[in-house]
Fold this sequence. Notes:
alpha/beta, globular, 6-stranded mixed beta barrel, binds FE2/S2 (inorganic) cluster, 7-stranded mixed beta sheet, single chain
Amino acid sequence: MDKQTDYGTPASRNTEQQVTLDIDGHSITVAKGTSIMHAAMQAGISIPKLCATDSLEPFGSCRLCLVEIDGRRGYPASCTTPVDEGLKVHTQTPKLADIRRGVMELYISDHPLDCLTCSANGDCELQDMAGAVGLREVRYGYEGSNHLSAEKDNSNPYFQFDASKCIVCSRCVRACEETQGTFALTIQGRGFDSKVAAGNFDNFLDSECVSCGACVAACPTATLMEKTVIESGQPEHSVITTCAYCGVGCSFRAEMKGEQVVRMVPDKNGGANHGHSCVKGRFAWGYATHRDRITKPMIRKSIHDAWQEVSWEEAISYAASELQRIQSKHGRNAIGAITSSRCTNEETYLVQKLVRAAFGNNNVDTCARVCHSPTGYGLKQTLGESAGTQTFDSVMQSDVIMVIGANPTDGHPVFGSQMKRRLRQGAKLIIADPRAIDLVSGPHVQADYHLKLKPGTNVALITAMAHVVVTEGLVDEAFVKARCEWDSFQYWSEFVAQPENSPEAMEAAIGVPASDLRAAARLFATGGNAAIYYGLGVTEHSQGSTMVMGIANLAMATGNIGREGVGVNPLRGQNNVQGSCDMGSFPHEFPGYRHVSDNATRALLENAWGRPLDNEPGLRIPNMLDFAIDGSFKALYCEGEDIAQSDPNTQHVTHALASMECVIVQDLFLNETAMYAHVFLPGCSFLEKSGTFTNAERRISPVRRVMTPKNGYEDWQITAMLSEALGYPMPYQHASEIMDEIARLTPTFHGVSYQKLEELGSIQWPCNEAHPEGTPIMHIDEFVRGKGRFMITEYVPTSEKVNAKYPLILTTGRILSQYNVGAQTRRTDNVAWHPEDKVEIHPQDAEDRGIKDGDWVGITSRAGNTVLRANITERVQPGVIYTTFHHPESGANVITTDNSDWATNCPEFKVTAVEVSRVSQLSEWQRQYQEFSQDQIALAQQQDESHIE
Ligand code: SF4
Ligand code: SF4
Ligand code: SF4
Ligand code: FES
């Protein structure tokens, strides 16, 4: 299997100055600041090494990489010695060979000699180095003191720590610090007694370790080793693909044995992750072969019937005939579809095409409705394009980082690590969040301002900050005059300058001292390159779209847009939120954000698709659900999305689903929505299909099939079969042909093709004639809409108010180890870190109600009630409680209301007025849920053979 080249030390950041030197008689020209080791590797000369690896800064501890340099005394370490003009370096001399053999002898005398049975056999740098230095004997013998009987730590579900094999090179410790930024590991003791330890904890699982795997990747021996490699042996080939979890879009080498994944190793060339990963992408892929997976199609007449396993032909023909029956009886608009941001671009494109061309309506929506639809609206209005403006790497040029309503270390962990790296270099940090997320205070990271605002007051906060910028003369007038609509700026600046928008007037509503708001605004406007990163804490509000516009206003007013280090950056939750929006999965927009009423686009697509297209926007998810209850919406095709768990007001959603005549679910598992389905079309995992995902920085990355689909078909093929059965053939042979069509019909994708993805690795759109290799930073010379437009952002408090009956605000979020509704991560060993959702309550609120840590707590809102275990913590402020929503039985969405963003209907997940009290049993909803889901599982289990053996 090909291994990625390890240059030993990172590449020099100096792109301007070059240095020429001689290494072993070869003249080599490299960037100034390059290490001799790296320069030698560039020339194909490999210098023995153990403590160095190119993902980490050089350390210089093992003394194996020594070289001789003409005119210099001694034997400098090539990993820590930079190149210099005219140097003459010798990497192989009799003296060096002698020293290296001596070093290796010492290592080997304290190392088990079980190479043949070691899990790293064939992939061990110690073994390689013993060979490279020509080690033939160990003079010191093996009888002296050694570490050969050190105990193994198997506490982490995914990797083992076998201390007997440790050479104390510190690569793991440094990886945890430099790459991950968690600082979980230390070297304890000195000299012979020195050993790697998980801080002051007994084992890895109990420690601060977040199981990112950076230490495992960095370890040159079998000391830190994936358990899958220990069980299955070394992989024999690898395929580069893209993580299917979050919007960071990490690139991985799926290392395989035949059709079996042995491990996922983050790809050093990955544009979004540069060789790093988190616990989900690195380790939590076992769900793909979990026994719960359903691989045979099933149908049933009623949701109270047993499922009947049928052939693909029968399932597709039944689904199509039901859709046709319903349309002929209830009208063209009685059916629709929902796509998921977990699907590939190609799959999403096909679903919206199916709806528009074969269903003959625009009733297609996506789960981005419930997360980032306000981003689409807000950024389009102000900047002209519904996408983040930067690359992730841009953060390394930021001087001030403002994080609003996002929790990067949990939600976007690899980017969170990169951000922490920049903060350790000295960038300033402003956090606007009701809760003390990890970034507020962590190892070597401390927020300069934590604006602990009350949930629901984002718009008041951003407008108050804008007030400071405008009234204190901090506007970048040159930028605004050159780049923005001056009239809109004047109108906006007069608005924000009004006394009622001042921090002093707003502080009571926001709950943040005016002095902090002023100081944070000054820092943002004057601290150099200032970048804003935001998440669902911005969008999932009744004023989500207003807040997105407020963010764009602030960035434009301070000139922080259109170059490295600045910008407006939505952190997309799921892997393909950006892509699913790009692909036209909203009811009002065709691919490329072109409105359905746009005659030219409609004509283009009608011509290409051969069907007339509706010029009226179709139904959004909430409309579909309301109309289902009213009786006019009767059938839904739902691919990869679990609305019964992920959408607000669960009882409303399940009532709507139960009211439909035909619910078709395409998924890996019998999810919560499938329990209300009549047709189940088994989907396939990202490991079994070809396609592309587009991450939060608009980066289109390839998803490559590494194993045969267990259900027989890739998901796009299933949509195509359904379309054909509806009389609208989609004769694609491969996902690449779908991308070719997307590129042909979508101006921002004109230059995208699988061939180009093969050549470049990934592409950030727009990619077209003007930008043939993509566009890392947007809006450089002008905004996509021409001039940037300031929008008025009047603060309108949410109608979801606290009162005597519901005195607390519930807000929701995610945790690192779990992913959204948990359908995938709950079926992996990640449950070790988060086996249940808990409710965080401030000690004061808990004491007032007699609630102790670990008690069962009933949470009641205007929409419903549920019961969770209490976690008493000062992470939340008094008056605010917080929970995650990864386990369906938690019923977090039973209590969220169906309030939503005024512009996009994105639910107001982040603000629900509630009361909590100590209880001793589950809620009524939870009891009913348990009963219903047990019945549904029983109805499915009558099809035993449908499970993977
Ligand atoms: S565990 Fe591996 S990386 Fe860490 S010090 Fe030991 S050998 Fe080096
Ligand atoms: S897995 Fe990650 S967090 Fe845990 S010790 Fe290793 S580098 Fe640190
Ligand atoms: S979940 Fe996100 S951060 Fe983690 S490996 Fe996957 S893409 Fe990367
Ligand atoms: S590789 Fe240079 S000192 Fe270890």
